[in-house]
Design brief:
It is built from 4 helices and 10 strands, in the order βαβαββαββββαββ. The chain has 184 residues and is an alpha/beta fold. The chain has 2 domains: 54 residues, NAD(P)-binding Rossmann-like Domain (Rossmann fold); 106 residues, Pdz3 Domain (Roll), CATH 2.30.42.10.
Protein backbone atom coordinates (compact mmCIF):
# COMPACT_ATOMS: atom_id res chain seq x y z
CA UNK A 1 0.00 0.00 0.00
CA UNK A 2 1.36 3.39 -1.02
CA UNK A 3 1.08 6.24 1.45
CA UNK A 4 0.19 9.59 -0.05
CA UNK A 5 2.79 12.29 0.67
CA UNK A 6 1.38 15.02 2.91
CA UNK A 7 2.33 18.53 1.83
CA UNK A 8 3.03 21.02 4.61
CA UNK A 9 3.52 24.73 5.13
CA UNK A 10 5.10 25.32 8.53
CA UNK A 11 4.28 28.69 10.06
CA UNK A 12 6.67 29.71 12.82
CA UNK A 13 9.20 27.12 11.66
CA UNK A 14 11.95 28.43 13.95
CA UNK A 15 9.75 28.41 17.06
CA UNK A 16 9.35 25.40 19.35
CA UNK A 17 6.21 23.96 17.68
CA UNK A 18 7.65 24.58 14.20
CA UNK A 19 10.92 22.84 15.13
CA UNK A 20 8.97 19.89 16.58
CA UNK A 21 6.91 19.66 13.39
CA UNK A 22 10.08 19.51 11.30
CA UNK A 23 11.46 16.78 13.61
CA UNK A 24 8.39 14.69 12.71
CA UNK A 25 9.06 15.35 9.02
CA UNK A 26 12.66 14.13 9.51
CA UNK A 27 11.49 11.04 11.39
CA UNK A 28 9.20 9.97 8.54
CA UNK A 29 11.10 10.55 5.28
CA UNK A 30 8.94 10.14 2.22
CA UNK A 31 5.70 10.81 4.11
CA UNK A 32 5.91 14.61 4.13
CA UNK A 33 7.00 17.36 1.73
CA UNK A 34 7.63 20.84 3.13
CA UNK A 35 6.28 23.32 0.58
CA UNK A 36 6.63 26.47 2.67
CA UNK A 37 8.35 27.88 5.73
CA UNK A 38 7.55 31.10 7.58
CA UNK A 39 9.64 32.42 10.44
CA UNK A 40 10.33 35.51 12.49
CA UNK A 41 13.62 36.49 14.08
CA UNK A 42 15.88 33.42 13.90
CA UNK A 43 17.20 33.94 10.38
CA UNK A 44 20.18 31.59 10.83
CA UNK A 45 17.91 28.67 11.71
CA UNK A 46 15.53 29.58 8.88
CA UNK A 47 18.44 29.49 6.41
CA UNK A 48 19.39 26.02 7.71
CA UNK A 49 15.77 24.84 7.36
CA UNK A 50 15.54 26.19 3.81
CA UNK A 51 18.76 24.38 2.92
CA UNK A 52 17.50 21.09 4.38
CA UNK A 53 13.87 21.08 3.22
CA UNK A 54 14.12 23.13 -0.02
CA UNK A 55 10.61 24.65 0.23
CA UNK A 56 9.09 26.45 -2.73
CA UNK A 57 8.02 29.39 -0.52
CA UNK A 58 9.86 31.10 2.34
CA UNK A 59 8.30 34.01 4.20
CA UNK A 60 9.71 36.41 6.76
CA UNK A 61 8.25 39.54 8.37
CA UNK A 62 8.43 42.65 6.20
CA UNK A 63 11.16 45.11 7.17
CA UNK A 64 10.02 48.52 8.40
CA UNK A 65 10.74 51.37 5.97
CA UNK A 66 14.24 52.78 5.88
CA UNK A 67 15.46 56.18 4.73
CA UNK A 68 15.28 55.47 0.99
CA UNK A 69 12.63 54.58 -1.55
CA UNK A 70 11.11 51.11 -1.92
CA UNK A 71 8.83 51.98 -4.81
CA UNK A 72 8.77 54.58 -7.52
CA UNK A 73 9.69 55.21 -11.11
CA UNK A 74 13.01 54.82 -12.88
CA UNK A 75 13.53 56.87 -16.03
CA UNK A 76 14.38 54.48 -18.86
CA UNK A 77 17.08 56.84 -20.18
CA UNK A 78 18.78 56.86 -16.76
CA UNK A 79 18.54 53.05 -16.52
CA UNK A 80 19.93 52.68 -20.05
CA UNK A 81 22.90 54.88 -19.11
CA UNK A 82 23.65 52.60 -16.14
CA UNK A 83 23.23 49.49 -18.30
CA UNK A 84 25.49 50.95 -21.00
CA UNK A 85 28.24 51.24 -18.38
CA UNK A 86 28.10 47.48 -17.83
CA UNK A 87 27.77 45.39 -14.68
CA UNK A 88 31.44 45.91 -13.72
CA UNK A 89 31.06 49.68 -13.60
CA UNK A 90 27.86 49.37 -11.54
CA UNK A 91 29.47 46.92 -9.09
CA UNK A 92 32.34 49.36 -8.44
CA UNK A 93 29.79 51.56 -6.65
CA UNK A 94 29.28 49.08 -3.84
CA UNK A 95 31.07 46.50 -1.76
CA UNK A 96 29.35 43.13 -1.42
CA UNK A 97 30.26 39.75 0.00
CA UNK A 98 28.62 36.39 -0.62
CA UNK A 99 26.20 35.31 2.11
CA UNK A 100 26.61 31.58 2.54
CA UNK A 101 24.84 28.83 4.45
CA UNK A 102 27.64 26.29 4.72
CA UNK A 103 28.50 25.66 1.07
CA UNK A 104 25.16 26.98 -0.22
CA UNK A 105 25.00 30.50 -1.64
CA UNK A 106 22.10 32.51 -0.22
CA UNK A 107 22.63 35.96 -1.77
CA UNK A 108 24.90 39.00 -1.97
CA UNK A 109 25.29 40.92 1.29
CA UNK A 110 25.88 44.66 1.04
CA UNK A 111 28.92 45.78 3.01
CA UNK A 112 28.81 49.44 1.97
CA UNK A 113 27.84 51.87 -0.77
CA UNK A 114 31.08 53.34 -2.08
CA UNK A 115 29.59 55.88 -4.49
CA UNK A 116 27.25 58.17 -2.52
CA UNK A 117 26.06 59.81 -5.76
CA UNK A 118 25.25 56.65 -7.75
CA UNK A 119 21.86 55.21 -8.71
CA UNK A 120 21.37 53.45 -5.35
CA UNK A 121 21.77 56.55 -3.17
CA UNK A 122 18.00 57.19 -2.91
CA UNK A 123 16.99 53.52 -2.62
CA UNK A 124 16.18 51.77 0.68
CA UNK A 125 19.31 49.61 0.90
CA UNK A 126 21.54 49.38 3.95
CA UNK A 127 24.74 47.59 4.93
CA UNK A 128 23.85 44.03 5.90
CA UNK A 129 20.99 43.70 3.39
CA UNK A 130 21.17 40.46 1.39
CA UNK A 131 20.09 40.59 -2.27
CA UNK A 132 18.31 37.34 -3.15
CA UNK A 133 16.92 38.00 -6.64
CA UNK A 134 16.13 40.65 -9.24
CA UNK A 135 12.88 40.25 -11.18
CA UNK A 136 12.61 36.75 -9.73
CA UNK A 137 16.00 35.70 -11.07
CA UNK A 138 18.85 34.62 -8.77
CA UNK A 139 22.29 36.24 -9.09
CA UNK A 140 24.58 33.52 -7.74
CA UNK A 141 26.64 33.04 -10.92
CA UNK A 142 28.17 35.57 -13.33
CA UNK A 143 26.02 34.30 -16.22
CA UNK A 144 22.89 34.90 -14.12
CA UNK A 145 24.01 38.47 -13.44
CA UNK A 146 24.53 39.04 -17.17
CA UNK A 147 21.12 37.53 -18.00
CA UNK A 148 19.37 39.82 -15.49
CA UNK A 149 21.45 42.80 -16.67
CA UNK A 150 20.49 42.19 -20.32
CA UNK A 151 16.80 41.62 -19.45
CA UNK A 152 16.55 45.06 -17.80
CA UNK A 153 16.85 46.74 -21.23
CA UNK A 154 13.37 45.52 -22.15
CA UNK A 155 11.84 45.27 -18.66
CA UNK A 156 9.02 47.53 -17.57
CA UNK A 157 9.62 46.81 -13.88
CA UNK A 158 12.55 46.24 -11.58
CA UNK A 159 11.82 44.17 -8.46
CA UNK A 160 14.58 43.29 -6.00
CA UNK A 161 14.03 40.77 -3.19
CA UNK A 162 16.20 41.24 -0.10
CA UNK A 163 16.58 40.10 3.47
CA UNK A 164 17.28 42.75 6.07
CA UNK A 165 18.24 41.12 9.34
CA UNK A 166 15.31 38.88 10.20
CA UNK A 167 12.85 40.50 7.79
CA UNK A 168 12.11 40.46 4.09
CA UNK A 169 12.05 43.46 1.83
CA UNK A 170 11.01 44.07 -1.78
CA UNK A 171 12.09 47.07 -3.81
CA UNK A 172 9.66 47.54 -6.69
CA UNK A 173 10.15 50.20 -9.36
CA UNK A 174 8.33 50.90 -12.61
CA UNK A 175 10.52 51.75 -15.59
CA UNK A 176 9.13 54.63 -17.70
CA UNK A 177 8.37 55.04 -20.46
CA UNK A 178 7.09 51.47 -20.72
CA UNK A 179 8.08 49.46 -23.74
CA UNK A 180 5.36 47.91 -25.87
CA UNK A 181 5.33 44.15 -25.27
CA UNK A 182 4.68 43.61 -29.00
CA UNK A 183 7.74 45.58 -30.12
CA UNK A 184 10.67 43.48 -31.44
Amino acid sequence: MTTKVKRLAVLGSTGSIGRQTLEVVRAFPGRFKVLGLAAGKNVDLLVEQVSEFQPAVVERPVAPPGKGLRTGTIERARLDAVLDGGPGNFLRQLEVTPRMDGNRFVGWQLVQLIDRTGPLVDVDVAPGDVLLAVNGQPLSRPDQLQTVWDSLRTANELDADLWRGTTKLRLSFTIEPKLDAKAP
